[in-house]
Structures are given as structure tokens and as C-alpha cells.
Amino acid sequence: MSVRKLKPITPGQRFRVVNGFDAITTDKPEKSLLVPNKRSGGRNNRGKMTMRYIGGGHKKKYRIIDFKRDKNGVPAKVDSIQYDPNRTAFIALLHYVDGEKRYIIAQNGLKVGQTVVSGEGATPDIGNTMLLSQIPLGTTISCIELRPGQGAVIARSAGSFAQLMARDGKYATVKMPSGETRLILLTCKATIGVVSNSDHQLLVSGKAGRTRWLGRRPRTRPVVMNPVDHPMGGGEGKSSGGHPRSRNGIPAKGFKTRSKTKASNKYIIERRKK
Q1: Between β-strands 189-192 and 181-185, what pairing exists: parallel, antiparallel or unpaired?
Q2: 177 has a pLDDT exceeding 70
Q3: Where are the beta strands (DSSP E) in 70-207?
Q4: Does the pTM exceed 0.70?
Q5: Is 202 exposed, middle or buried (0-12, 13-18, 19+ CB in 10 A)?
Q6: Ranges of each domain in the chain
Q7: 252-267: per-residue pLDDT in tens?
Q8: Which value, to the nearest 10 degrees, does the dihedral of the CA atoms of residues 93, 97, 98, 101 take?
């Protein structure tokens, strides 16, 4: 993983930091795993805008990712590491011995030609998917299920990982990317290793136009709105805008919004650091 700082030959490139794409081995996606990805522009089925600051952006197709890793015991060879415009992490194309092809989230250190396997009998090597009951304690893991058979939902973005801390009864204690310590059923699966493209956080877009290419429209600050549009709007000149709060009036700093009776509270051992 590496990043490149561009030479300032234009104003937009003066501060631009781009990905080196050292890990990428091909720029041609697997056609059988592509599906159309229609843009909504933030509108619902009646054409009404329900999400602000969404619109435009480059056309892109969705890559079907295998988050479940349910081909248990079937070895697969890593054919290529590819860029995915729909996520921050890189993806790997697997060729299974039975002829099937699937995309998975690539882990740091996953190489072309490497063999990966999931399920019972898998070894704790990078890219292999195992049950939490079989992974050695202290192992760095990613792409973790929260319910058995659900598919990976935790630690899927670039550079993210969790750590398997302990096992007790039918639960494993996992330290999450946020710092939260949580119980997860031992029958859930996780992949060994850290998610690829860990240098993603170092990238600098360099200009506002690149954010538009990603499909994000300019965001209006609440302080400059009118009172009818936001609780922090209005006032003469540069008013402070009052206490920080959302458009619906919910305070933004220090106000707890999590329910005290939420069902998953009993699985959280230690909350994330403030």
C-alpha cells in the first residue's frame, strides 16, 4: 500500500494525494459479477427528495460481493485484486476449484495465486474464513458476522479490523474497530486479517469537483440557513447559531440517543471511548 503526492501543475493538484494502487493487478472487472447500479439522486419512489446533498457522480456498476463465504471446504485461488468504486476496500476475485467465480473483500497481504478456504478445517491464514469458535485468541479479524449465516457486517471498510479477545460459553468477546468490546455468538464467521487499502485515510481529494464525481453535492452549513430551514438558522450577520443541534432539534454534542432498554445492550461489555 502506498500513496502518491502529485506535482502542483494545476491548483486542483497542489494538495492532491492519490492512491498508488500497488496492490491492484487488473482494471477489467469480471462481467458475470456486475449488475446495474441506478442512482436515486436522493429521491424516493414518488420523486420527492428525502436525502439532501446527493446527486450527479460518475456512472458505476455494482460488484456482487460474497459476504457470507458459505462455500465451506471448497478451496479457491485468488485470480486478481481489483478496485471497487462502491467501497473503500479493494476486492479479490476468487476462482473456486468447481469453476465458480466470486468476489470477496480483500485483506492486506492477500496475493494473486494464493489459496483461500472457508468453514471447518480452514487454517488461520490471511483471507481464510472461520467460525469464531475455531479462531485462535488474539487473532486480528475482519468481515465479521453479527448473526450466524447473515454475512459480514462488521469491519468491512478499508484498513478496519477487530480482535478476538476471549471465549466464554457460547459467546466470543471481540474488540470492535470503534473500541467497543462486545459479545458475538461463536457460530458466527470472521475472516483472518486486516481489510486492504489501509492508506485510504491519507488520501486528499484536492478540489471540490472530485467530491462531485463521487456523487456528493455541496452541503449547506446550518448557521447560514433561515430560521424556517434549521434551528440554528437566522440572526443578523455572523450569528453563532445557538447550541449545535440537528435539523429535527436533537442536540449534537453529548446528548445520548441510544435507548436504555435496547435489546443488544446486554451484549456490550464496554462502550466505545468518547
Answers
A1: unpaired
A2: yes
A3: 76-82, 91-96, 101-105, 115-116, 129-131, 140-142, 162-168, 171-175, 181-185, 189-192
A4: yes
A5: middle
A6: 3-201
A7: 999 999 999 999 999 9
A8: 0
Q: Which residues pair with 268 in a beta bridge?
A: 182
Answer yes or no: are the C-beta atoms of 130 and 192 closer than 8 Å. Answer: yes
What amino acid occupies position 59?
A: K
> DSSP characters for 84-118?
-TTSSS-EEEEEETTS-EEEEEPBTT--TT-EE-B
Right CATH for 3-201 from 2.40.50.140, 2.115.10.20, 1.10.357.10, 3.40.50.300: 2.40.50.140
Q: Record the cell numbers describing residue 184, joined without a space.
A: 458475538
Mean pLDDT, rounded, of the chain: 95
Specify the 3-state DSSP secondary structure of 212. helix
Q: How many CB atoms sit inside 10 A of residue 106's CB?
A: 25
